[in-house]
Amino acid sequence: MAREQTARVSPTAYATGYFWFRQGMSHPAFATPQGKRLDRAFRVLTGVTRRLSGFSLDALMLARHKGIDAQLSKAIDSGRIGQVIEIAAGLSPRGWSFMQRYGDRLRYIETDLPTMAACKRALLLQTGSLSERHQLVELDALSSDGPDSLAAVAKRLDPDVGTAIITEGLMNYLDPASARGVWQRIAETLGGFPQGVYFSDVYFNERVQHPAVIAFGALLSAFVKGRMHVHFKSPRDLAQILKGAGFKRVRAVRTDAIAATREYASQRGGDSVRVLEAWA
């Protein structure tokens, strides 16, 4: 994500929006015509990648999404979390599905850059989900101040209620310096609540990837017009960097340790992602 990309909706947002619908996890409103076309194209590319390498992008996406869902649900059910900010939510169904599940027990703010936010807002209006408790607002994760900053959006929430912040499929688009700035702002924001936790997908570059997977990553980078970054060498490296950004407790949860994602952990791709859980 970058500031100059505010003028368009990312093709990957449309494609993943349709992917969630195809998996039976989303509202039909998110199944756009653009998404259907792009999903078909991505299925060809990911199919070739899987045949050549055994790597399943579907397993990766389902593992990361359902893994974050499971850890967020656990935090809400424990009573520690009652509010959520999702950064760069795209056409993810998470806000809609969690409000369906928790209703008045939860307040959920989805955020994105202006054009994507306008697109998502129009689709959410079709679901009837938007309300005082479920909002869609503009936010630039790279802004350190101003009305589109994380700090400004967080002021919409109750400072006495535990809060979670989520990023999914975002951080690998950011260069290391930008990513660290985002993590610092998330930790600082969560520090203003009685309980604060950050959930995200996380990857480690400690294993050499199959050439077909590397080629697919290069193709995806060209498609989104930006380089993909793997920020951590190992779980120890992750803990050091995130604690340096201001988090107190950091762990990377394996997909085979989460009941909702165990079936994907046995597949190549599903075993490559972990769920980051960092408490501020």
Automatic annotation (TrEMBL):
Keyword hit for Hydrolase: no
One protein family per Pfam: LCM
Domain of life: Bacteria
One Gene Ontology biological process: methylation
UniProtKB keywords: Methyltransferase, Transferase
Gene Ontology MF, one: methyltransferase activity
PANTHER family cross-referenced by the UniProt entry: S-ADENOSYL-L-METHIONINE-DEPENDENT METHYLTRANSFERASE YKTD-RELATED, S-ADENOSYL-L-METHIONINE-DEPENDENT METHYLTRANSFERASES SUPERFAMILY PROTEIN
Name of the molecule in the record: Class I SAM-dependent methyltransferase
Organism: Solimonas terrae
Classification lineage: Bacteria, Pseudomonadati, Pseudomonadota, Gammaproteobacteria, Nevskiales
